[in-house]
Amino acid sequence: MSQESSDFGILQSIVGSWYESLKNPEQYQDIALKELLEAYGKTRYGQIHKASEIKTIENFKRMNFPHSIVCV
To answer: Please, are residues 42 and 51 in contact by the beta-carbon 8 Å criterion?
Structure first.
């Protein structure tokens, strides 16, 4: 394998999913939201704000899910 092929393979593994997301950004935004909410749902903060109940961007907007944490 040439150095150029090797470099391309490394680059493809890094930016490949981003490049694919450009073909259908809405679909990939939904996927990203679901992954983030799944991770949030495992935290105390996410459980308090019912992150596991949010399934779509419309739900996310309606539930007024907090966008930042306020430290007291």
So the answer is: no
Identify which has the larger pLDDT, 8 or 35: 35
Instruction: Give the Cα separation of 10 and 27 in Å (integer).
Output: 25
Give the model's pLDDT for residue 69: 57
Q: What is the mean pLDDT of residues 14-42?
A: 88
Contact 70, 60 (CB under 8 A): no
Please report, in angstroms and rounded to a whole number, the separation of the first and last CA atoms in the chain: 57
Could you tell me where the DSSP H helices lie in 1-72? 3-21, 25-41, 44-48, 57-62
Structure tokens at 16: 């490949």
- Note if the pTM is more than 0.85: no
DSSP-derived secondary structure letter, 23: T
Cβ atoms of residues 46 and 52 within 8 Å? yes
